[in-house]
């Protein structure tokens, strides 16, 4: 089945030929390429990249000589120099682009370096993912060549002193290859729009002029856009506007909580394709139909390490300890949670990206994202992951036939012990007490530690049913609207205080 009837440039075709299908070997080759490219940078000189390259075991030598970093430590020691305009700091040349992180738990934006090498690697992975559609069954081939609607950040980037900064999706759209431009929607003019509400309005106005086959974006914003289109043109479903819509490419958050509400807006089934595209790089993608996991990119532009997510490597505040245990891809085990360290073609070295993953098939390097290192909830040892939360919400939604597009959880004191307080977005009629009970029972089934602690120090589960609009309005209030911004699944510290104050004002 010839899904994509285009001839790839020879350079791309060559790059897509995989080396021996051995993740360990592929990863060592990637590491050597990174080290060779960066050996003469200030970072490479300080951490003796030449010595690592000459070693019989470069992976282990790399772990021995190069420390681990989080954002604060690598920015303080290295990246601020690049931001000030210094060349050859962590990667050859000057860094001309920075992705502003979309994290909601921090007040200040993070500046993540973006290089042409990184974007080129991301592009190769995207092409591979597209080519994987050849193995899909029963998909409408004609939809492949239709428009791609990407709902991302503005391409009108912030101008700094010698650099540009903005949302990764905005940078990627701005630097999209010429051959892809005819397929790109909403077009250059709307893509530049910084006001998110105006951008949505302009897309809705243009919607009848487009024939869309793919939509790409964060589920919450895509759902909102489809609802706006349906309402404005008095449609039954989005397929009344875009009959060839067949694919939804998503990532960043679990799609399961959104799926039920999403499908109410469709006139026919579509294919969902999951990606793991972070500001720091394209890490994994779904390469098989109807699979609930993603394949790690082991042979392109990212060297991966895995830190067992346990009490030995992370403290009570889920901060990584100094000199944690780090494993390479051949050393991991299936079914265990690992925090992810990455080294990339943008001068990101042994960097804690903040996500946790679990291998479901080690032989094929297939993973699921289980949460964020800071978004695990463990007040008394319940070790509740975002994966557990998403799964419980999905099961309860199906059981009660309701849609829960957003939720968040906070750990709170209660009668000298502790409780979990859930905030759930649901526009369907539902009893809050019953919903809390159902979620609690599902979590007991899914997580043994949680079940034990519910009979001990975790004394209660509270739940407030809110509207989806309240979640969205809070994001607007925080300046976290649109693009890659997602509502955090666990609220702590200042973010929790702000959320509680916001809800008080709403009453």
Structure notes:
- The protein has 507 residues and is α/β, with parallel strands linked by helices.
- Among the domains are: 118-278, no CATH class; 386-506, GMP Synthetase, Chain A, domain 3.
- Helices cover 35% and strands 21% of the residues.
- The chain has 17 helices and 19 strands.
- The protein has helices spanning 10-15, 23-38, 42-46, 49-54, 58-65, 71-83, 116-131, 168-174, 188-191, 196-206, 219-232, 256-263, 386-400, 432-446, 448-454, 468-477, 493-506, and strands at 97-100, 111-114, 147-150, 158-159, 164-166, 184-185, 212-216, 247-251, 271-278, 281-285, 294-296, 302-308, 337-344, 351-361, 366-372, 406-414, 417-425, 458-466, 490-491.
- The strands form 3 sheets. An 11-stranded mixed β-sheet has the order 6-3-7-8-9-10-11-15-14-13-12. The protein has a 4-stranded mixed β-sheet with strand order 2-1-5-4, sandwiched between helices.
- Helix 10 crosses helix 11.
- The longest helix has 16 residues, at 23-38.
- The radius of gyration is 23 Å and the shape is globular.
- Residues 1-8 and 103-107 have low confidence and may be disordered.
């Amino acid at each position: 089945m010839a899904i994509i009837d285009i001839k790839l440039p020879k350079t791309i075709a060559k790059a897509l030929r995989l080396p021996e299908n051995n993740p360990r070997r592929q990863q060592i080759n990637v590491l050597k390429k990174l080290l060779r490219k960066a050996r003469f940078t200030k970072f490479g000189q300080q951490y003796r990249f030449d010595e690592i390259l000459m070693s019989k075991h470069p992976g282990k030598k790399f772990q021995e000589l190069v420390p681990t970093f989080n954002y604060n430590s690598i920015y303080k020691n290295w990246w601020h120099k690049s931001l000030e305009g210094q060349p050859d700091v962590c990667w050859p040349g000057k860094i001309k682009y920075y992705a502003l992180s979309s994290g909601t738990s921090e007040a200040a934006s993070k500046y993540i370096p973006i290089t042409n090498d990184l974007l080129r690697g991301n592009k190769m992975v995207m092409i591979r993912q597209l080519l994987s559609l050849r193995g899909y069954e029963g998909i409408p081939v004609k939809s492949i060549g239709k428009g791609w609607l990407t709902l991302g950040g503005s391409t009108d980037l912030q101008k700094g002193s010698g650099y540009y900064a903005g949302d990764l999706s905005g940078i990627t759209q701005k630097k999209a290859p010429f051959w892809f431009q005819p397929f790109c929607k909403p077009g250059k003019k709307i893509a530049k729009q910084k006001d998110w509400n105006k951008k949505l309005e302009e897309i809705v106005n243009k919607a009848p002029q487009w024939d869309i086959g793919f939509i790409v974006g964060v589920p919450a914003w895509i759902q909102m856009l489809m609802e706006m289109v349906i309402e404005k043109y008095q449609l039954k479903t989005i397929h009344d506007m875009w009959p060839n819509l067949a694919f939804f490419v998503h990532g960043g958050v679990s799609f399961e909580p959104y799926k039920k509400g999403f499908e109410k807006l469709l006139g026919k089934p579509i294919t969902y394709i999951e990606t793991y595209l972070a500001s720091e790089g394209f890490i994994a993608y779904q390469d098989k139909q109807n699979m609930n996991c993603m394949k790690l990119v082991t042979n392109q532009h990212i060297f991966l390490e895995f830190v067992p997510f346990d009490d030995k490597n992370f403290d009570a505040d889920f901060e990584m300890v100094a000199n944690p245990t780090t494993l390479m891809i051949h050393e991991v085990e299936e079914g265990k949670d690992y925090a992810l360290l990455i080294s990339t073609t943008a001068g990101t070295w042994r960097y804690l990206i903040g996500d946790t993953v679990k291998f479901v098939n080690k032989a094929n390097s297939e993973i699921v994202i289980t949460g964020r290192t800071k978004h695990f909830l463990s007040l008394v040892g319940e070790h509740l992951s975002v994966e557990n939360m998403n799964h419980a919400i999905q099961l309860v939604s199906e059981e009660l036939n309701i849609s829960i597009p957003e939720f968040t959880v906070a750990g709170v004191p209660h009668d000298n012990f502790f409780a979990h307080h859930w905030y759930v977005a649901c526009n369907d009629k539902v009893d809050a007490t019953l919903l809390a009970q159902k979620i609690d029972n599902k979590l007991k089934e899914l997580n043994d530690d949680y079940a034990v602690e519910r009979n001990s120090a975790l004394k209660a589960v509270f739940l407030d049913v809110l509207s989806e609009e309240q979640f969205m309005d809070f994001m607007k209030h925080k300046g976290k609207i649109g693009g890659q911004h997602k509502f955090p699944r666990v609220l702590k510290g200042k973010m929790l205080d702000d959320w509680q104050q916001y809800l008080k004002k709403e009453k």
